[in-house]
UniProtKB/TrEMBL annotation:
Species: Eoetvoesiella caeni
The encoding gene: ubiK
Family: Belongs to the UbiK family.
Annotated localization: Cytoplasm
Main location per the UniProt record: cytoplasm
Name by which UniProt lists this protein: Ubiquinone biosynthesis accessory factor UbiK
């Protein structure tokens, strides 16, 4: 008589073979193929690409804030110069 471990291993092997030969395996492959095709059509990026773009955006926003301050200063200087000239 087979030991309990051998029986379980044999049972697991038989179930695995049954699943591999069943329509479930085909369905799983088809679903994976459809999902892969769908993801390929979507405009997705990797997490690394997202993080890089987020960092670039942060730097751009910081630079814009600095430039806005400079523009306000220049506008003030121009307006003050006009007021003095009048």
């Amino acid at each position: 008589m087979a030991t309990r471990t051998e029986w379980f291993e044999d049972f697991q092997k038989n179930i695995s073979e049954l699943i591999a030969k069943s329509p479930a395996a085909d369905i799983e492959r088809n679903v994976k193929a459809v999902m892969a095709q769908t993801f390929t059509k979507l405009d997705l990026i990797s997490r690394d690409e997202f993080d890089t773009q987020a960092e670039l955006l942060e730097r751009a926003l910081a630079r814009i804030a600095v430039l806005e301050v400079k523009v306000r200063e220049l506008e003030t200087a121009v307006n003050t110069g006009r007021a003095s000239a009048e």
